[in-house]
Amino acid sequence: MMNMSRTGLWLVGAHGGVATTVAVGLAALQDKNNFGCSHLACGLVSQLPQFRSLDLVGWDQVVVGGHDIRQTTSLKEAQGLSSGTVPAIAPMLVEASRGFLKEFESRIRPGILFNAGSTIESLSSKDRVAAVDTPRQAIACVQKDLSEFITSSGCDRVVVVHIASTEPPPVIIEPLPESWSQFQGLLDHHDGPLPSSTLYAIAALEMGLPFVNFTPSLGSCPAAVQDLAVRKKTCHMGCDGKTGETFLKSVLAPAFAKRNLEIMSWVGHNIFGNMDGQVLNDPLNKQTKVASKDRLLRQMLGYDPQTHISIEYIKSLGDWKTAWDHIHFRAFLGTPMTLQFTWQGCDSILAAPLVLDLFRFTELASRRGETGCLTQFSSFFKSPLGTDENDFAVQFNQLTQWASSL
Ligand SMILES: NC(=O)c1ccc[n+]([C@@H]2O[C@H](COP(=O)([O-])OP(=O)(O)OC[C@H]3O[C@@H](n4cnc5c(N)ncnc54)[C@H](O)[C@@H]3O)[C@@H](O)[C@H]2O)c1
User: 116 CA distance to ligand 1 centroid (A)?
Assistant: First the structure.
């Protein structure tokens, strides 16, 4: 069994809705009485019976820190969530988490900003962004923060999870070099094409720390960065947490395929109003998200139905996302039929437990010496890196098989 060492969870995007919900949730999980909150384990995959015998990090061993670019505090963000759009985070829960959030805040450092686009830049404040010229300096700065965190918190292991705002697709004129030695040349020029998410990934992987990309941003996707993970004998995974509409898509589409029902078109309209929605309201940032939500049907069906995905920012909805999906399919004798569903979920409440699960599973895999791109966690991602498998049932089976092999 694990000893009572401390393990670090480093959140990039530490002041965001998901990160704040992770922090409040963790504070409740660490409390002896769970702050009196019933059903706390709902939504936590790692709490399922299949994973009970795994030597996962205990909640009370976890120390949290992170980076962000906005001038605010975790407590303010949690109060904002609870008074506004996430009633599940009751004011009493925020009050009970006050000490935890204060400690978390003391471990949040200014972030880095490269190729983030004007919408993300407009969220930042000057003194919350590290003053650096080149990507290489930015990486050094992130590494310094991570080293200080490791020393000051006494953590013997750290997992870095990227949950910052979705970046626009990178403008890549020439293909990125595939070997790490050539790729490094891109790090010395201020105007290189790499976005912050990739620089955070490089910073973590160079230090031998696992990197999880919960966003659709580029992160550790470039081949050379994946190569770096292998060289440094550490692991990484992504991209984009599969929490709501896309989760249902990956459950339903294989069922249609298995009954030989031909999907002719699949339309998904998404409306929500949190800060993530505000960022995705920028057509450039939206492109990254739509591409991530739209890519899986072909793999699951073996053909390309007509698809349409819209994401609209409706401020009054806050963190509550409504997705309305219209699936038009053909049955026996060519008879057209329709399935429609409406998903109404609270985005941060759906995402936060999956971040905690990924942290625990990744830490265990890394402690066991697993390196490179880990695909057994693909059920958590909309665009799983390193595999074409998108069928949720198959992906979940891979996760349980991994667990039983340990
Ligand atoms: N259900 C979900 O909520 C869900 C599901 C899948 C993926 N995601 C992705 O997770 C990410 C976070 O979602 P959220 O709802 O918490 O968003 P949010 O807008 O509430 O938070 C994002 C945070 O990232 C910070 N940030 C932006 N650029 C940064 C940088 N370069 N360095 C450090 N911090 C930076 C922002 O200041 C903000 O505090 C988004 O990319 C979102 O698309 C969320």
Answer: 12
Q: Tell me, what's the pLDDT at 1?
A: 46
Nearest residue by C-alpha to atom 32 in ligand 1: 111
* Secondary structure (3-state) at 90: coil
DSSP 43-66: T-GGGSGGGTTS-PPPGGGEEEEE
Residues 6+ positions from 260 with CB-CB distance below 8 Å: none
Q: Residue 145 — very low, low, confident or very high, per pLDDT cuts 50/70/90?
A: very high
Rounded to the nearest whole angstrom, what is the distance from the C-alpha of residue 4 to the centroid of ligand 1? 31
For residues 182 and 281, what is the distance between their CA atoms, to the nearest angstrom? 36
| Alpha-carbon distances of 300 from 247, 257, 337, rounded to whole Å | 13, 8, 20
Q: Which of 276, 282, 347 to mutate to test the pocket of ligand 1 (most atoms within 8 A of CB)?
A: 276
Please write the tens of the pLDDT for every residue from 268-295: 999 988 888 889 899 989 888 888 778 8
CA pair distance 151, 289, nearest whole angstrom: 36
Check: pTM over 0.90? Answer yes or no. yes
Tokens 């958590």 belong to 380
State pLDDT tens for residues 291-313.
Answer: 877 888 988 999 999 999 999 99
Q: Is 152 helix (H, G, I), strand (E, B) or coil?
A: helix
Query: E strands, 129-219, where?
Result: 155-162, 211-213
Q: For ligand 1, say whether the CB of 69 is within 6 Å of any of its atoms.
A: yes
**Rounded distance between C-alpha atoms, residue 22 and residue 100, angstroms:** 11
Encode pLDDT of 147-174 as tens digits.
999 999 999 899 999 999 999 998 888 8
- SS3 breakdown of the chain: % helix, strand, coil, rounded to 5? 45, 20, 35
Cα-to-centroid distance, 215 and ligand 1 (Å): 8
Measured in Å, residue 20 CA sits from the centre of ligand 1 at: 10
Interacting residues of 57 by C-beta distance below 8 A, sequence separation 6+: 2, 7, 359, 360, 363, 364
